[in-house]
Specification:
Layout lengths: L1 H35 L14
Amino acid sequence: MRSYILTLVRKRENLRDLAIINRRAAKLDREAKDVLGYQIPLSPAGRYRH
């Protein structure tokens, strides 16, 4: 019985976490795109361009 209750609690927490991530997904995507814009382009060999 205890194991079943713990499983229900975990499922509820996972659903709550997923809802938070989904609500904030658009903002997180914008931030990631912004950060990627600051990266230095690499050459095909993986070295920095001069």
